[in-house]
Amino acid sequence: MSSRRKAVSVIGPNQTRCNVDVYNFGLELGRSLADAGYVIICGGMFGFMEAVCKGARSAEGYTYGCTVGILPGNTKDEANEFVDVVIPSGMGWARNQLIINSADVVVSVAGGTGTLSELAYAWQAGKTVICYTQFDGWTKRLAGTQPDINRKGGELKPADSIEQILKHIKFGV
User: Fold this and answer.
1) Global pTM exceeds 0.90
2) What class is the 11-172 domain?
3) pLDDT tens profile 61-91
4) At 55, is the secondary structure helix, strand, or coil?
5) At what angle do helices 20-35 and 162-172 cross, to 10 degrees?
6) Could you state, in order of their start, the residue ranges of all structural domains in the chain?
């Protein structure tokens, strides 16, 4: 059995679409994931990604290296200050596929077209995807669906609390 820690990719809105409620939820989600011992992978920039990393840093269970940011550009300077491991991909939006492929499970919150592309990659990769349904955006619109009946993939699992998210992660990983 592998001693590797399980990785959760967290996807959601950037700073232009991330309101205060979504940001505060990200803080709580990041704390909860770090306390549960997961490695958190995200896009490493601002908005919801920053909130999740900042929340993880404030957790009692935080250990250095539990937040990983995969950036679109070529420089580490683009990362938010709460990312422990910064990976500048130089791939632009294509880095979304790396965020998904690095995960054992994906948690999606709200989101615009960037989140939509990550949801599509996750579906195509057959990843377990947990969709938090309390905020508007692509996550809520697609929760509980099978986006493409011609591909094998699980349902995009709806969740309406952090407790439900953690339960889905535990049984989906």
Assistant:
1) yes
2) alpha beta
3) 999 999 999 999 999 999 999 999 999 999 9
4) helix
5) 40
6) 11-172
